[in-house]
Amino acid sequence: MFFSAFTLGCKLNQLETEAIADSFCRNGFSFLPWDSLKKNQNDSGILVINTCTVTSMAEQKARRVIRKAMREHPKSCLIVTGCYAQMEKIGLEELEGRLMGRLFVVPGEAKDRLLDLGRFLSGNAADENPVLLRRLIASWLGSHADDKAVGGISNAVGVGNAGGAFRFVPEKFFSHSRAFIKVQDGCDRSCAYCRVSLARGKSRSLEANEVLKQLQALERREIAEAVLTGVNISQYSDSGMSLPELLEFLLNGTGKIRLRLSSIEPEPELFNEVFLRVLADKRIRPHFHLSLQSGSSAILAKMGRPYSPDDIEKIVALLSHIRQDPFLACDIIAGFSGETECEFEKTYTLMEKLGFAWIHAFPYSKRPGTAAFSFSDNVSGKDAARRVELLTSLARKGRLDYIQRWRGREVEAVVEAGENSLKGMVQAVTENYLKVCVDYGEEKAPAQGSLIRCRIAEIAETGSYDALACYIRPMMPVMP
C-alpha cells in the first residue's frame, strides 16, 4: 500500500510531514511523491495533506488540493491535518459531501497521532481493501478523539518529556537533502494579523539536551547540515537557556555539522553579544531570514510588532558586519489595514536601502479570530497586489545583485540532486542559500547529501536555480 503527502506552509510543516512519511514507510508503506500519484489512481493508499492557515490563499489552495485528491483517487483515504484543520475542522469535513468515509480531519494539536497510525494499520493487516482501510482509520482516530495525554507516548519514541509536539523526528528525509530539527512550537505573541498562535498555541521548547542528542545523532550519520526550525525560534527557552545559548551549547557539543536557522524575529534584545558571537561561527550558515512584515513604524505598531525601522537597520548592519555579505531575506505583508501609499513607500524605501537578497512579499488577508479582523481601514486587493509586485520586482533585482557579487568566490554547498538530474551536473544549495548547478567535470559525481566546495561561475539563465558553479572538492561523506 502506498503513502503520499502534500505540504503547505512553513518549514515546520515540512518537517512534520517528513516525520509522518518516515513513520508510515518504516511500517511497510511505499512512499510516492505527490506529483507521481496519477500513475496510481486506481490503487488504495493514504494521502496526507498538511495545511496552513497563515493566509486565505493558503486555505483556498488546501481546499483545491483536497477536492482534486478526492476526485482523482477514489480508492484512497485522505487525512487532512495542520493549522487550517485546527481552526476549521468542521468546514473541512464538509468538503467530502456525500462521499462519506474517505476524508478524515485531524486537528493540528493531534497531528502527532499520525506518527502511530502506520504501525496500527500494519498490525491490523490493512491491505488493498479500501473499505477495511477506512474502517481501521476511523477506529484509530475515534479511539483517540478525546486523548490529551500525548506526553506518555513521547517517552516511547525517545524524546524525553518533550510532549507530542516534539515527536516529529524522522530517521529518513524523503523531500530534503538537509535534516531539520524542531526545537520550538507555538508563539506567545498576539500580532494583530496572525492566527498561527491560535492554531499552534503558546510557545514551548524542546529541552536543550534533547536537541543536542538529535544533532549528535545526525552528525554520527555524516549529515552535512541541519536546519533548526519552529513557529518562532526566537522564543526558544529551556531552563533559562535562550536561542543564543542553545546555539553555543550545540556548537560546543558537536564537531562539524553545519547549522542553519529558520526565520528569526528582529527583536533588539535577541541580538546580544552572545548571539552575535555565535552567529559569527563558521558552522552557522550565513543565511538569515528576518520576519519584518513592514518598514513603517506606524504599521509595525498597529500590527503589534515589538521593534522599529531603526531597529531593523541596526540588526541588518550587525549581521552584515559579523559575516561577509550574508544572504539576508525577509517577509513583508503588503496592504495591511491602514497602510497608505505613504506608509508603503516607507517600507519600499527601507527594503531598497538595505538591499535584501530576497523579499518574500505577500498580500494581507483578514484572518478570523485576530485583532485586525475587525479593522475597517482596509486596503483594496488591487492595491495590495500592486505593492506585492513592486516588492517582488525589488526582490528579483536584489537576488541578481547578490549572485553577481559572489561570482568567482568559493562556497560550501550541500548536494540536493544527484547526477541524474542534469548530465555532468548536480544541483546543490550553498552555505549562503544560493541554488546552484555544479559542473563536476572529470571528477566522480558528488552524491546527494554530500558536502562539497564549489566556485560560483555565473548567473543561471533558468529559473530552477540561481547560478552555475564549478566543482572543487568533496568535504564530507555522503548522507546515508
Low-pLDDT runs of 5+ residues are 147-162
SS field, number of helical segments: 15
Distance between the termini: 25 Å
What integer value in Å does the Rg equal? Answer: 23 Å
Main β-sheet description? 5 strands, parallel
The CATH homologous superfamily of the largest domain is named tm_1862 like domain
The CATH architecture designation of the largest domain is Alpha-Beta Horseshoe
Strand content: 15-25%
Q: How helical, in percent, are the residues?
A: 25-40%
- What's the shape? globular
How many E strands? Answer: 20
Structural class: alpha/beta
CATH class of the largest domain: Alpha Beta
Rounded mean pLDDT is: 90
Number of domains: 3
Strand order, sheet with most strands = 2-1-3-4-5
CATH-assigned fold name of the largest domain:
pyruvate-formate lyase- activating enzyme
Characterization of this structure:
With 480 residues, the chain is α/β, with parallel strands linked by helices. The protein has three domains: 2-154, Rossmann fold (3-Layer(aba) Sandwich), CATH 3.40.50; 169-405, pyruvate-formate lyase- activating enzyme, CATH 3.80.30; 410-476, OB fold (Dihydrolipoamide Acetyltransferase, E2P), CATH 2.40.50. The protein is 35% helix and 23% strand. It is built from 15 helices and 20 strands. The protein has helices at 11-25, 56-72, 83-87, 89-93, 114-123, 130-143, 151-156, 196-200, 208-220, 243-253, 273-279, 297-303, 309-322, 341-354, 381-405, and strands at 2-7, 30-31, 45-51, 77-82, 103-105, 179-182, 184-185, 204-205, 225-229, 237-238, 241-242, 258-261, 287-293, 327-334, 358-363, 410-422, 425-430, 435-439, 451-459, 467-476. The strands form six sheets. It has a five-stranded parallel beta sheet, with helices on both faces. A five-stranded mixed β-barrel has the order 16-17-18-20-19. A three-stranded parallel beta sheet has the order 6-9-12. Helix 9 packs parallel to helix 10 and helix 14 (341-354) runs parallel beside helix 15. The longest helix is centred in the C-terminal third of the chain and has 25 residues, at 381-405. The chain starts with a strand and ends with a strand. The model is unreliable at 147-162 (pLDDT under 50).
